[in-house]
């Protein structure tokens, strides 16, 4: 899976959860601050991402921006192969 | 009424947890609840490891029944508190957690044979807790006092029950046997109550704060922190009004700065519990404050709630 593909899936999940428009969710978007997401929204996003990519996210620590999420997914997928 | 096997396995006579209320739930209150057959829980709140160790010691000097500790994950002392609990593991039956994701502490608690019961406010959070090995969850609705989520108990509990294969304890809006019976009907194995124990004879809460809870009516709680973050349910008083007025004023600005609002909140629960000062203290309480009209010993609270629920459920 390419980075772009990972990003667009992550973006779709965040758009779905937060109700924001897709163009507001970019790589540099800070999920909590820019999208007013609270910790429950973050749990929701993490759950969806785990299901979508069949990976495990053990902690949300260190995940602030969309880019952090994409990088994390990328690394997990690489480790799986 | 049959007590669920999970609750029995914790050594409980009644399927009732006493909420681990920060500053309120000390070793004395926890011991009183546990001695009477419920689960007394020491609230670590923002206290240091040393203070939590003292309260565990105190509870243990007063009771040899199961005791729990609530770990507040946003506390700056959380690492120390976890260490203290692990050191005292043979004397702690249950750890409940609040305000966050306890995943990283779970393996150590489990290795120490402590049952871990995170407090959750959504299905996704509950599922995550189940996956990382929680033994049960407390599903807490926004009727409760203190820090709250968004869903009500009536909506949250059955959805969490449906999503999990581990026991669910209901919390938020429960103060009597009707609440316990209703929670069982929603699929919970028991309840956690805070506000009713806040006014218990063994609770150290300042008499003025207790009086305010006993006097409160149904509509007397408000939510502070809806804009500034970490929403908390408190009784209306001068402190809450000042907090909310300033909070609303800031929220209307294009670049809100909530530091002054947060300064009003900092230490305000401790002030309420220790001094009763209604000008500066946060009188945290649940929506059931209107149902809580008498201060009783913990043993009477437990027996009353259980007997009423048993009667309603047609058992003996």
UniProtKB/TrEMBL annotation, chain A:
InterPro entries per UniProt: ACP, ACP-like_sf, PP-bd_ACP
Subcellular location: Cytoplasm
UniProt PTM comment: 4'-phosphopantetheine is transferred from CoA to a specific serine of apo-ACP by AcpS. This modification is essential for activity because fatty acids are bound in thioester linkage to the sulfhydryl of the prosthetic group.
Molecular function GO labels: acyl binding; acyl carrier activity
GO (cellular component) term, any one: cytosol
Modified residues (O-(pantetheine 4'-phosphoryl)serine): 39
Annotated Carrier domain residues: 4-80
Pfam families: PP-binding
SUPFAM superfamilies reported in the protein's UniProt record: ACP-like
Keywords for this protein: Cytoplasm, Fatty acid biosynthesis, Fatty acid metabolism, Lipid biosynthesis, Lipid metabolism, Phosphopantetheine, Phosphoprotein
KW Phosphoprotein (keyword) present: yes
Pathway: Lipid metabolism; fatty acid biosynthesis
Family matches, as NCBIfam families: PRK00982.1-4
Family: Belongs to the acyl carrier protein (ACP) family.
Protein name: Acyl carrier protein
Record organism: Secundilactobacillus mixtipabuli
Record gene name: acpP_2
From TrEMBL, chain B:
Function: Nitronate monooxygenase that uses molecular oxygen to catalyze the oxidative denitrification of alkyl nitronates. Acts on propionate 3-nitronate (P3N), the presumed physiological substrate. Probably functions in the detoxification of P3N, a metabolic poison produced by plants and fungi as a defense mechanism.
Residue ranges the record marks as coiled coil: none
Keywords: Flavoprotein, FMN, Oxidoreductase
Single GO molecular function: nitronate monooxygenase activity
Protein name: Probable nitronate monooxygenase
Protein encoded by which gene: fabK_3
């Amino acid at each position: 899976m390419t980075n772009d593909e990972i990003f667009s899936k992550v973006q779709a999940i965040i758009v779905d959860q937060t109700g924001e428009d897709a163009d507001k969710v970019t790589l540099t978007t800070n999920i909590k601050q820019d999208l007013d997401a609270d910790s429950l929204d973050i749990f929701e996003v993490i759950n969806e991402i785990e299901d979508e990519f069949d990976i495990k996210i053990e902690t949300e620590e260190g995940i602030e921006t969309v880019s952090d999420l994409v990088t994390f997914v990328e690394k997990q997928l690489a480790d799986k192969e | 009424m049959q007590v669920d096997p999970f609750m029995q396995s914790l050594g409980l006579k009644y399927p009732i947890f006493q909420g681990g209320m920060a500053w309120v739930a000390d070793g004395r209150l926890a011991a009183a609840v546990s001695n009477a057959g419920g689960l007394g829980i020491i609230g670590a709140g923002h206290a240091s490891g040393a203070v939590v160790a003292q309260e565990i010691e105190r509870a243990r000097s007063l009771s040899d029944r199961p005791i729990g500790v609530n770990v507040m994950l946003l506390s700056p002392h959380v690492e120390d508190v976890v260490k203290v609990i692990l050191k005292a593991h043979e004397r702690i039956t249950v750890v409940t957690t609040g305000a966050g994701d306890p995943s990283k502490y779970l393996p150590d608690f489990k290795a120490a044979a402590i049952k871990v019961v995170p407090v959750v406010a959504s299905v996704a959070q509950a599922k995550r807790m189940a996956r990382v090995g929680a033994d049960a969850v407390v599903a807490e609705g926004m009727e409760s006092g203190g820090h709250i989520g968004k869903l009500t108990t009536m909506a949250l509990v059955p959805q969490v029950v449906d999503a999990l294969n581990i026991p669910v304890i209901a919390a938020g809006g429960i103060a009597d046997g009707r609440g316990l019976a209703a929670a069982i009907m929603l699929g919970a194995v028991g309840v956690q109550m805070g506000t009713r124990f806040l006014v218990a004879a063994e609770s150290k809460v300042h008499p003025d704060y207790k009086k305010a809870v006993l006097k409160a009516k149904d509509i007397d709680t408000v939510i502070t922190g809806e804009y500034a973050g970490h929403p908390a349910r408190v009784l209306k008083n001068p402190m809450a009004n000042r907090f909310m007025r300033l909070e609303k004023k800031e929220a209307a600005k294009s670049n809100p700065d909530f530091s002054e609002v947060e300064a009003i909140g900092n230490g305000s629960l401790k002030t309420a519990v220790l001094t009763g000062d209604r000008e500066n203290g946060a009188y945290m309480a649940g929506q059931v404050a209107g149902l809580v009209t008498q201060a009783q010993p913990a043993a009477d609270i437990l027996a009353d709630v259980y007997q009423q629920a048993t009667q309603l459920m047609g058992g003996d």
